[in-house]
Design goal:
Blueprint (H helix, E strand, L loop, with lengths): L1 H4 L2 H6 L6 H8 L2 H17 L3 H16 L20 H4 L20 E6 L8 E6 L4 E6 L34 E3 L13 E3 L2 E3 L8
Parallel strand pairs: 1-5
Antiparallel strand pairs: 1-2, 2-3, 4-6
Helix pairs in contact: 3-4, 4-5
Protein name: Oidioi.mRNA.OKI2018_I69.chr2.g5010.t1.cds
Keywords: Disulfide bond
């Protein structure tokens, strides 16, 4: 962990290309090394500049170094990681449209979510209303390729004895942990969603 704080991963794996064995040496742990190597590849695939790659890895480090046998990191502070994802999904000068123009049922406090799975980089953006707990809109850039990746929705069966009533297979208990806690970043600051599993639809931990 001390080596991570010293930034050795950046020297070894961002400024230069590293293999899995070198990633293990950075964290001195085989399991964490696997997670770091996957994170590095994910960030390098998504970003072209060294700075953006480093920021991507920084956000993913809590997932790399956490002990799976311990409770997950508290959402109130460490999971509300600011990141400027607007330029990746909106036209220049037209980022996060309509945020200050919502009326009627859509009015209320809104936040700028950079949607990502916990420990991974963002892949689309959402303007989210925290008063109604509903998204106002989402934005994403897509390209169609014949042999492109596909991401099927999780399809777990949830039995009746695990909650008040059975849930359809299409319903899955995940939540943006960046929204947990009593405070969220200012409305003009975008931050990672950090989608992760929760115990019930009403719980953040």
């Amino acid at each position: 962990m001390e080596e991570l704080k010293d930034g050795n991963w950046e020297r070894e794996c961002i400024e230069e290309d590293c293999n899995a064995n070198e990633a293990y040496e950075v964290v001195d742990d085989e399991e964490q090394g696997d997670r770091l190597f996957d994170l590095l590849n994910d960030c390098k695939e998504k970003h072209n500049t060294r700075e953006s790659q480093s920021n991507c890895v920084e956000n993913g480090m809590p997932a790399v170094t956490r002990n799976e046998k311990q409770d997950k990191v508290s959402a109130e502070s460490s999971l509300q990681t600011p990141v400027n994802c607007g330029p990746d999904y909106f036209r220049p000068g037209a980022e996060w449209p309509l945020q200050n123009m919502l009326v009627g049922a859509q009015s209320g406090k809104t936040v700028r979510l950079c949607q990502n799975n916990y420990g991974k980089d963002h892949y689309f953006a959402t303007l989210f209303n925290t008063d109604t707990n509903l998204p106002v809109y989402s934005a994403i850039k897509i390209s169609r390729t014949k042999n492109g990746k596909s991401y099927p929705r999780p399809d777990k069966f949830i039995p009746a004895n695990s909650g008040p009533k059975p849930r359809p297979k299409s319903v899955w208990l995940k939540m943006c942990k960046g929204l947990c806690g009593t405070n969220t970043p200012p409305s003009d600051t975008s931050f990672y969603c950090n989608l992760d599993e929760v115990k019930s639809p009403n719980e953040c931990d």
